[in-house]
Amino acid sequence: MTAQDRPLGALATRTEIAAGRLTATEATEALIARISDLEPELRAWVHVDAEGARADAAALDAGPNRGPLHGVALGVKDLFAAAGLPWRSGSPIWKDRIAGFDAAPVALARRAGAIVLGKTVTTEFAGYKPSQTRNPVAPGRTPGGSSSGSAAAVAAGMVPLAFGTQTSGSVIRPASFCGVVGFKPSFDLIEPYGVTALARSFDTVGLFARDVPDVAFGIEALTGLALPLPTLAQAPCPMTLFRSAAWSKAEPDLLRAWDAFEADLIATGAQLHDTLPPSFVRALDPVLELHARIMAVEASEALAYEAEIAPDLLSAGLRAQIEEGRAVPPAQRHADRLALTRLRARAVSDLDPSAVWLTPSSCGAAPDFDASTGDPAFNRTWSLLGLPSCSVPLLSDDAGRPIGVQVVGAMGNDHGVLATANWLMQRLAGL
Amino acid sequence: MTAQDRPLGALATRTEIAAGRLTATEATEALIARISDLEPELRAWVHVDAEGARADAAALDAGPNRGPLHGVALGVKDLFAAAGLPWRSGSPIWKDRIAGFDAAPVALARRAGAIVLGKTVTTEFAGYKPSQTRNPVAPGRTPGGSSSGSAAAVAAGMVPLAFGTQTSGSVIRPASFCGVVGFKPSFDLIEPYGVTALARSFDTVGLFARDVPDVAFGIEALTGLALPLPTLAQAPCPMTLFRSAAWSKAEPDLLRAWDAFEADLIATGAQLHDTLPPSFVRALDPVLELHARIMAVEASEALAYEAEIAPDLLSAGLRAQIEEGRAVPPAQRHADRLALTRLRARAVSDLDPSAVWLTPSSCGAAPDFDASTGDPAFNRTWSLLGLPSCSVPLLSDDAGRPIGVQVVGAMGNDHGVLATANWLMQRLAGL
């Protein structure tokens, strides 16, 4: 599998179709062929809707331009409802469920002209149990979770864009492990109605693509946000490097790669600014535990129906997380909610709205396939705060397996995060 | 219809069943008979699941105590999924939909032993278009919306407890108009997964009952919060009277009733405290517009699928609200989200956690049936801030139609709000 034989990305597909050099049908057929070749090994898809995608492509080819994503194929994490397609949410409890409607993000994508190519594998209810999907760029390793199939399908060139969700680290971590770009927007930027809930205070719809311009293009098409990415000599936002409280979990290969990255960044002449005030960083101390506890409480309630009708069909790990959530006393729960409200407010009041900072996307490269989907320690804080973050494939371990650099920004600074991610790729990729 | 012939309330049902003086089957049959008598006139139900309720009651009667709600019947607003029952969300788009699962609150209620008696009428997607439900205590008037059926069914004694939801004023307003107790807990107290979304930053699951102890009992059973309501000589929380920026919309009958209420309250010897700092009240100035704008934006996205597949089946009012939401520029949207985060943080930082305040539940008594479901002006602020509020039937217009007093409290002060509501009913009802 080489980059050369991969089908076009999202922006290139749009450009070629608009210029009359490609039809939506041709673009779709190239992807279906690619999936046929690679899927038996990768197992990134729950269901490929080849016939539906062909019909949609033919309808688009026969009609006027439908929107910015006209003819662009989309992989949809199987946590999202998509009308007429399986909706299993990674659980045997829902193995026969067919969705009767489109989740809001799917409806918004279709309105913009996107073609839903199928449903990609999620871990069980977006939790920590590994799925069957393989990592296309790091053989024998996990693709990460929970958006395993979306990250792997994009990395393998099976689809140019794919939806994921992040509750702790489910977009940034698989992007890191699969060497693609993953973007978790500001909380609330993309409406999640129709997406199976895990922990609604954190659940955020995100997007995978092979490069930053494709991610920005997809987000712009879904939200109407203007996200221009001009080529820039200087970094577009005041930024700093931030190792964070998760640093104790950084693996040796990450430590080496990060040191080199910092040196390369300085060598570009990039100015570093003090974008994270020490008092704010100190306020983050309880965040890792707080995030895990609220997530357990909310999961125990969001999955109340499944836990009632089919507890034996939940994995032992998820059952334990649900039990942990149920055991949190009401007073602790209340204190946690107030702490969450206060921390999110501080993230608004204490940070420059244009600030970004750079931190690892994961503790290292992808762990062994059978071990776990990886640790979200570098992601939980930004999921709890609801801040935009983007993983770009700039680092690698000694065997060449990818590790992402995570660009995080102040609330609502989605454009700054993507512009910085794009600038980093232009300046540092391939060094 | 008199109070004497109404079936038992929730706590009384639980007590009688626990004492062996009543079976769940008998309790259920009494409610089914009541519904048979009154439903042709009131039209509070989308679907009464008499057979399912009878089967559940028989199973409960044959088994051990299942939980605090063992044998207590529940009306479920048709915005919530309940497995095997219609799930129309008040829209012709979903007239044939049958839910394949229980929404989380329904699952939590069933786990506690509740019997789902059926689905109650909601306005279209919980919006402002009047439903067909009649007001059982104010003939010719609206029962309010959007939880029209739940409020009317509880007021008519068809069911002791019923779920509602509030996005702007959809629990407190119908409770006010129907003369029942309506409680909207703190945002996030009850998980809403499986409830059709209207505006997720505000959508809150609430409960109706005929008295405060029944509401507290229901919330305790659903959440595990301890909500004891002892008889008290003095008010349980520091409280104040607050007319709010909505006061200009107060109708003449409310003005008279409120003056009398204030005098009666003072006459009890109740101490008033300065629980709402003037700087906090000033910060609330933009709230009414902010709430309406965020609600329009979020509704335009939550209903993206319906707007795409069947725009002609949406009411003109809802279509206009969706268009209004789509027209909000991204920069305004972003500013609104930051303003929301800041205001919620101020509600945590500026208020005594034990504070409550009293304000009207609605602008007056129920408007004419054909006019509207009423104005949520007195409710929007507390919905936006996510604060707990409870409507108690203490006031009336000159024709004797009910108007509620709304007890609102600081974030997480659900117990204080219910204890104050209970104290008010004990001290002032029937004066």
From TrEMBL, chains A, B:
Positions of the Amidase domain: 26-418
Cited SUPFAM superfamilies: Amidase signature (AS) enzymes
One Pfam family linked to the record: Amidase
Spans annotated as Disordered: 130-149
Species classification: Bacteria, Pseudomonadati, Pseudomonadota, Alphaproteobacteria, Rhodobacterales
UniProt source species: Antarcticimicrobium sediminis
Membrane spanning residue stretches: none
Superkingdom in the source lineage: Bacteria
Name of protein: Amidase
Matches recorded under InterPro entries: Amidase, Amidase_dom, AS_sf
